[in-house]
Design a protein that fits this description.
Helices cover 24% and strands 27% of the residues. By secondary structure, the protein is an alpha/beta fold. It has 2 domains: 195 residues, 3-Layer(bba) Sandwich (FAD/NAD(P)-binding domain), CATH 3.50.50; 120 residues, 3-Layer(bba) Sandwich (FAD/NAD(P)-binding domain). The strands form 4 sheets. Strands 1, 2, 3, 4, 5, 6 and 17 form a 7-stranded mixed sheet that branches. Helix 1 packs parallel to helix 2, helix 1 packs parallel to helix 6 and helix 4 packs parallel to helix 5. The protein is elongated, with a radius of gyration of 23 Å. Bound molecules: NADP nicotinamide-adenine-dinucleotide phosphate. NADP nicotinamide-adenine-dinucleotide phosphate binds next to helix 4.
Length: 326
């Protein structure tokens, strides 16, 4: 790319939402580019097993991502590997600035930047990240063969990752702050049936303990009686939800108290021609299939928006000859 370029649609983010938007946009003959700073697939690439995406009873997250990417590629979707540093809304068109120095312009922008793991915010978490603290069992589980690990959280992610780790580690403790898991029933049944997993109810970690070689334990607190104790562990995997990656969302776009973008049913934000999809958007269920559906919705809506934009003259100035008539 040697010069700034004008597109019908720019998609920011290459997860399931962004790639699905790309497929629908290409099928709608929009001149489209997708910008992604890392590998395509987003968070799903970190999932060991995906069992709830229709059409696949069992597929790995990385394989599903590859299929999305290949599907979009088959329609000739242009992609740029770069970091978006700003999205600047305009009246006639929007500007997307890249870290590499280029500026892209388009009638419509779909923001599909997903979310990131939420942190506990306890001593040792940042210091020992990569030295025993992890947010991805598929990435780091390998290092804990026949060892003891702690999984923090009680949702689907914690349950799935604990089950994955139970195939590698000797012992997996799930540390959960309440007396019931939030995870779906199928996962709960599997957890109950896995003898290597033990759940520590009504418990929260308050500190991660480490020695010169990294994490060696975790300080736990009983949420009911306040008692604290140390538990030896080789690793701490944290799955307590995530927060939306909303740093690029332009000012003027409405977000809820948790930072999720509020859109209408077309996934369109308060700013015309700017859409938010997937885990960035306020919604009931954050699932791969929902992100893909958002991508479809936003791309179809963007196609309609772009069509109208092209049909309307660039300027709203009244021709001089009309002004002169009585
Ligand atoms: P989640 O459903 O929000 O669960 C977060 C868990 O962490 C909850 O159990 C919560 O406890 C606990 N937690 C939150 N803050 C905490 C803190 N400060 N200290 C200790 N514990 C804390 O997040 P998730 O599991 O990452 O899932 C996110 C979304 O993705 C969900 O909609 C989920 O269904 C979906 N998901 C689906 C699948 C799948 O279907 N295959 C897989 C992964 C994720 P409480 O229960 O007490 O609130």
């Amino acid at each position: 790319m040697t010069e700034d370029t004008f597109y019908d649609l720019i998609i920011v983010g290459g997860g399931p939402g962004g790639l699905s938007a790309g497929i629908y946009a290409m099928r709608a003959a929009l001149k489209t580019v997708l910008v992604e700073k890392g590998i395509h697939g987003g968070q799903v690439t970190m999932s060991d097993e995906v069992e709830n995406y229709p059409g696949f009873t069992h597929i790995s997250g990385s394989e599903l991502s590859m299929k999305f990417s290949e599907h979009a590629g088959a329609y000739g979707l242009e992609t740029i590997t770069d970091e978006v540093t700003a999205i600047e809304p305009g009246l006639d068109c929007h500007t997307v600035k890249l870290a590499g120095g280029h500026e892209l312009k388009s009638y419509a922008v779909i923001i599909a930047t997903g979310g990131s793991p939420r942190k506990l915010g306890i001593p040792g978490e940042d210091e020992y990240y990569g030295k025993g603290v992890s947010y991805c069992a598929v990435c780091d589980g390998f290092f804990y063969r026949n060892k003891t690990v702690v999984v923090v959280g009680g949702g689907d992610s914690a349950a799935e990752e604990a089950l994955y780790l139970a195939k590698i580690a000797e012992k997996v403790y799930i540390v959960h702050r309440r007396d019931a898991l939030r995870a779906g029933m199928i996962l709960q049944e599997r957890i109950k049936a896995e003898c290597r997993i033990e759940i520590l109810w009504n418990t929260v970690p308050v500190r991660i303990n480490a020695d010169e070689s990294g994490v060696c334990g975790v300080r736990l607190k009983d949420t009911q009686n306040g008692e604290e104790r140390d538990l030896d562990t080789d690793g701490v995997f944290i799955f307590i939800g995530f927060h939306p990656n909303n740093e690029l969302v332009p000012a003027g776009i409405r977000q809820n108290a948790d930072g999720y973008v509020v859109t209408d049913e077309k996934c369109e934000s308060k700013l015309p021609g700017i859409y938010a999809i997937g885990d960035l958007r306020e919604k009931y269920a954050r699932q791969i299939v929902v992100s893909a559906a958002d991508g479809c919705t936003a791309a179809l809506a963007a196609a309609h928006y772009v069509e109208n934009k092209k049909a309307v003259p660039e300027t709203c100035e009244i021709p001089a000859e009309l002004l002169q008539r009585e």
